[in-house]
Amino acid sequence: MKTVPKKKVSRRALLRGAGTTGLLLPFLESVPERSAFAQNEDPRFAFFICGANGVVQKYGDEPERFWPTEPGPLTKEKMLADSAERCTGLLADYADQLLIVSGMRYPDAARGDTHAEGHTMCLTGLPCEGTSIKATSKGPSVDWVIAEHAGGVPLNTYAGMKSGYVDDKLSFRSAGELVIAEPDPKKVYLELAGLLDGTGAESAMALELARRRKSVNDLVREDLQGLLSDPRLSSADRQRLELHLSVIRDIEVSTERMGCSEKNLSLDEILTIGPKGYIEDVVRLQMQLVGVAFSCNMTRAATLQWGDGGGDGTFYIIDGEKLERFHFISHRVRSDGFSGEPIVGAAEMHAKIDRVRMGTFKTLLDHWRLLSTPQGNLLDSAFAMWTTDVAVGPTGSFQNLPVIIAGSAGGRLRQGEYLKLPAFNNTRLLKSFLEVCGVDSSGFAASENVEPLSEVLA
Q: Could you tell me the residue ranges of all domains in the chain?
């Protein structure tokens, strides 16, 4: 399997041009020549999120804790009624902008490590080449097809420890060509801001900003003042610009507060000893950065691998209690395998973690609702798909994988429904996403001669 480093998101950055001039801006209707979008542009953005270890759904004696109580229309009232028992109920505020789909499976059964193979098939829609941790793809992943169709490359992010066992398995530029995702939000930010040098290290400008405790916004103050004094700038655009600058500053402060560079500790070390909810802090920051990249039209596709399962050393502290390793909890035993000393109450622990993760996913929707594009906010122009590498932890099954789709991609995806469908391969869903992004899906996952999943289309 060939691994390739993460590619630059695009030739554009939050700072562009020589020196310190030329701020890359979000959508600004009143000054289109300064906007990140061309006039009359109809962008569609795709964000693919894959978490580790499955969810708590009906399995053996374990009760249902994920799927809504009944298929059909989703309403805020119904989801709120479900929220005490079903983690998806925590998304009630966005009921009319969600599509929850059951019945999805990966195109092949597990033959080795379920986490490695599940992640590998998640966005390629093809059976793996090889097995277990050596599994690789037989074709490109959907994020690369979408991004390259628009003339760019995807933004590939990661949250969690990289132990050297499973690690990256989600994004493939082509058959067997694994792309390494960036686990450190600070480095993602510096890349988007154009503050990395040719070797991938912080540029002299980035180091100077850190030394002076200044923001990227300070580098373009003169440019900003000129724009803000432009009489054509509408009140709505002024608000968009102020929000954009505020988000950038919030990201800068958050990455510094995490202290990823303090005491020469690596991000993996910080995650190991970090405070309560640290992995969720990383996830939220990565989600914010994807939102900035989309709202500035820097890429049309992004991924987030949320842990890797097998070698993942993630612990959660919930209600003041440090739980067992998440991977052990998902198996219900103190083991990376499927046999070992039982963990009493493991299913309930897993359900609590699912609720934490769903609350974190909700922050993405809160953020996207505020960011503008030519066709409305990001929930109007984009979609985010949330799923997991396996369906349930105790068996590592690939049957009935959890799927939540938020956003309509310009009105092209159905919304406000829970669809309970007969079993279908994820290949069909991925082909549907290509279609809504304006990409011909006929050549995708060529060995799987299947049609897009029409049930999810508006």
A: 2-67+102-389
